[in-house]
Design brief:
α4 packs parallel to α6. This protein has one domain: Cytochrome C Oxidase, Chain A (Up-down Bundle), CATH 1.20.210. The protein has 19 helices and 4 strands. It is an all-alpha fold and 657 residues long. The chain starts with 13 loop residues before the first helix and ends with a helix. The protein has a two-stranded antiparallel ribbon.
Length: 657
């Protein structure tokens, strides 16, 4: 009845049992708090059933932060194990559990932290920047989020029930095949990625159509903010890349469930086909994460330099060039496969070529600051940290693009340091800049600036201390997935330094979480918009009250230049005629949540071969879709007079915080 699920699935090592206990305790405390405050109806009505992109964006970020805590805990465990497991000491976790932690860390951070913060920012900002009241497909947007949350939930379930994959975060065959991974770990990995990947594809379609079809009057493509352009390019990558991931995982599923041999060499398959396919998705995925961050910095730098963005057109072409080239460099991830020199040379050249548009963007940001009035706010500090770390990571990437060098460094910690320089020094620092910059837009008050700076310096110093030693360890021959080494190697002091750096990063993350709650309880109100507030951006999202009303824009704006709000503030744009109209907003629906929960049950059932539950879940998903699609598209209507009253109230709102 329960497939291969037995009581043995609940037996874990002490470290894993401690994590499960903390997870359960946190869940009970959260349920108790909501019950004590009597907020279940409010939670259901306002959040769990919402189709409002602003709230969906916040939920994306909330789920991403939960996964960040899990993924960062995995990183701390790995660093602690490597600092302790030297010579006769075996550390505090077994070798097999270390491989599970290694695999879970990469999977969590890329799929459920990186993708979460990217889609979170896009839900929050893009409709406001293009002057839209909603996204193109509100229900599709909600389904995309709940599928993402469903996949993320399976990562937490795998922590408590059964084991996770030990085949790495991309699960290369033959290690991920039945012969070497017969347990449920790889199946957990397949279904959480398959579910979240379908959700990402749906969200990508939604935002591509939103950007192309829902811009306000006058906003041509060459008048869009750079963040919108970066989102457009990232969504093109999502739509073309994620189906490759879906097909690849489907073939791996057939190999494991039906004994097919797409990737099984002994059965006539080809494991290298899997590696080609997974990286044909994987390298565009890197730019799906980083392109929106380029857009974030293209908003932050002009705002805090009090200048227009330098080289607007060249920035757009750089984004387009990166989008195209990102599909032409996948093979540099496995130069060691044994391809011909001609193949390696082509991909080495394309890898070096993609550095050119990236460099263009760096210089454009620096020229934007040149002779500007630079404000050293915390978002700008994150930008400076990004420039340093991303540039160092980019230069080491150029080194790795040379096949002879890559043959030496490919399986070493040098590559790990490079990758984290791009992802943490690029994507994560950029998210921190964007979150800090737009936080007052959606709350009406600021994050505590002093605590932001403390967190920044902890992150910056901790990052350098945690990852610079890995470059040296890579040169010294330390390999990836290393959980034990001999004292004679001389690596121990550098591993200790890396562990200390991780602890300093932990201090920075703790300050950020404390600062978030501190700022909520000690609200610093928004500065007067008529003054010289450098925080007030240039694009349309800053032209509406903070926090934004549910309908975003009472009067849909008409724009005729790149920085419309800048022109309004300087008196260069004609005054807006305030002619209010009835506003139609889609009604909330619980079917997105239902589909997400049922999909989670389906993934769990398929992992453990509980066929009756899988069939019931799948049929229920189809029924939910049929019921939802057969419903009339009902809308909540806000009359024009009510809109006028709400606008007056919102104008008073920020000053009353």
């Amino acid at each position: 009845m329960f497939g291969r699920l037995t009581l043995d699935a609940f037996k874990h090592e002490p470290s894993q049992n401690s994590a499960v206990f903390m997870m359960v305790l946190t869940g009970i405390a959260l349920i108790g708090l909501i019950s004590y405050l009597k907020r279940w109806k409010w939670l259901w009505r306002e959040w769990l059933t919402t189709v409002d992109p602003k709230r969906i964006g916040l939920m994306y970020i909330f789920v991403a932060l939960l996964n960040f805590m899990k993924g960062f805990s995995d990183a701390l465990m790995m660093r602690l194990q490597q600092a302790l497991s030297v010579g006769d000491s075996q550390g505090f976790i077994s070798a097999h559990h270390f491989q599970e932690v290694f695999s879970a860390h990469g999977t969590t951070m890329i799929f459920f932290v990186g993708m979460g913060v990217v889609f979170g920012l896009m839900n929050l900002i893009i409709p406001l920047q293009i002057g839209a009241r909603d996204v193109a497909y509100p229900f599709l947007n909600a389904v995309g989020f709940w599928l993402f949350a469903s996949g993320a939930m399976l990562t937490f379930i795998s922590l408590a029930i059964g084991k996770f994959s030990a085949a790495g975060w991309l699960s290369y065959p033959p290690l991920s095949g039945l012969e070497y991974s017969p347990s449920e770990g790889v199946d957990y990995w397949i279904w959480m990625l398959q579910i979240a990947g379908v959700g990402s594809t749906l969200s990508g379609i939604n935002f591509l159509v939103t950007i192309l079809k829902m811009r306000c009057p006058g906003m041509t493509l060459m008048k869009m903010p750079i963040f919108v352009w970066s989102g457009l390019c990232a969504m093109v990558l999502v739509i073309f890349a994620f189906p490759i991931l879906t097909a690849t995982l489907y073939m791996l599923t057939l190999d494991r469930y039906l004994d097919m041999h797409f990737f099984t060499a002994s059965g006539g398959g080809n494991p290298m086909m899997y590696v080609n396919l997974i990286w044909a998705w994987g390298h565009p995925e890197v730019y799906i994460l980083i392109l929106p961050i380029f857009g974030v910095f293209s908003e932050v730098v002009p705002t805090f330099s009090e200048k227009r963005l330098f080289g607007y057109v060249s920035m757009i072409w750089a984004l387009v060039a990166i989008t195209v080239l990102s599909f032409l460099v996948w093979l540099h991830h496995f130069f060691t496969m044994g391809a011909s020199p001609h193949v390696n040379v082509v991909f080495a050249f394309m890898t070096m070529l993609i550095a050119i548009p990236t460099g263009v963007k760096i210089f454009n940001w620096l020229f934007t600051k040149f002779q500007g009035r630079v404000h050293f706010t915390s978002p700008m500090l994150w930008f400076f940290a990004f420039v340093l770390n991303f540039t160092v990571g980019g230069m080491t990437g150029i080194l790795l693009s040379s096949p002879p060098a890559d043959f030496q460094f490919h399986n070493s910690l040098f590559l790990i340091a490079h990758f984290h320089g791009m992802v943490i020094g690029g994507m994560l620092f950029g998210f921190f800049a964007g979150f800090t910059y737009w936080f007052p837009k959606f709350t009406g008050f600021f994050l505590d600036e002093k605590l932001n700076r403390y967190a920044f310096w902890c992150w910056m110093s901790g990052f350098l201390l945690a990852f610079m030693p890995l470059y040296m360890l890579g040169f010294m021959g330390a390999t990836r997935r290393l959980d034990h080494y001999e004292a004679s190697t001389g690596w121990h002091p550098l591993f200790v330094l890396a562990g200390i750096g991780a602890l300093i990063i932990l201090c920075g993350a703790s300050i950020q979480f404390f600062g978030l709650f501190w700022s909520i309880f000690h609200r610093k109100k928004l500065w007067d918009h008529s003054g010289g507030d450098p925080w007030n951006g240039r694009t349309l999202e800053w032209s509406i009250p903070s926090p934004p009303p549910i309908y975003n824009f009472a009067i849909v704006p008409t724009v005729n230049q790149i920085d419309p709000f800048w022109a309004i503030k300087r008196g260069e744009a004609p005054p807006v005629e305030k002619k209010y109209e009835d506003i139609h907003l889609p009604k909330n629906t619980p079917f997105g949540l239902y589909i997400g929960v049922l999909t989670m049950f389906f993934g769990f059932a398929m992992t453990w071969y509980i066929w009756w539950l899988a069939i019931i879940s799948f049929v229920s998903i189809i029924v939910c879709l049929i019921i939802r699609l057969s419903e009339k598209n009902e809308h909540d209507i806000i009359p024009a007079e009510k809109v006028k009253e709400m606008e007056a109230e919102h104008v008073r709102g920020p000053e009353a915080v």
